Amino acid sequence: MTYSGEVTVGGPADVRELKDLMITKIAVGPMDNNAYLLRCRATDEQLLIDAANDAHTLLGMIGDDGIASVVTTHRHADHWQALAEVVEATGARTHAGREDAEGIPVPTDVLVDDGDTIRVGQVELTARRLVGHTPGSIVLIYDDPHGHPHVFTGDCLFPGGVGNTHNDPKAFASLIHDVETKIFDVLPDETWVYPGHGKDTTLGAERPHLPEWHERGW
C-alpha cells in the first residue's frame, strides 16, 4: 500500500517504509492528534513522537518491542495526555524542548536544544526549536540519505499555514521567521511534512503561499 498520511481517529495507522526507517502515523483523541512511531530498520529500536491521547491505542501500535524514547513536540496538553501511561508501560526516556519542559507534567529526561541530535537506533534526527506557537516547540528532521528529508512539525507547520499564535503579532513574526529560516530556507521542496494534526504536506506545496501567510498575519 502507498503511504498517504490520511488517518482518522479510530481508524488504522498508515505506514511508510523507508530504507532505514519505518514511520507509522496514527490519529488519536478528541482533537484529532497525530502520533508517529519511528522504527530503525537495522536495530528495531523505536521512538514515539507525541503520546497525545489514548494510551491503549498507542501501546498497541508500539507492540511488544516497546520504545526507547518518546519526544513531546511542545507543552500543549493535547500532545501529552497519554505520556505518563506510555512511559510507565515502556520505561521510555522522555525528550522535550528545554523551554517547554516545565509545562509538561511528566518529568523530562532529556532537555532538547536547537540543533541537538536525537537517535533512534542508527537513525539520526535533528531537533530545531521554533518559537511562537509555544516558547520551546521542537520539530524533528530526518534527512534520509537515500531520498528526501522528512520533518515532524508538531503544531508549528501545517498544510495552509503555520501554527496558531493566538493573534499575537510578535509570536507570529517569530514563528514564521523560524519556519522560514530553519525549514523552508534549508530543505528542498520534496521534504515531506508530518504535522501534529490532520493531513501531511510537502514544502513544495506550501512554499508558494509564504507571502500570503505573511500578509494575513497567521
From TrEMBL:
SUPFAM superfamilies: Metallo-hydrolase/oxidoreductase. Residues 32-197 form the Metallo-beta-lactamase domain. Residues 206-218 have a biased composition (Basic and acidic residues). Residues 199-218 are annotated as: Disordered. It comes from the Bacteria. This is MBL fold metallo-hydrolase. It comes from Streptomyces thermoalcalitolerans.
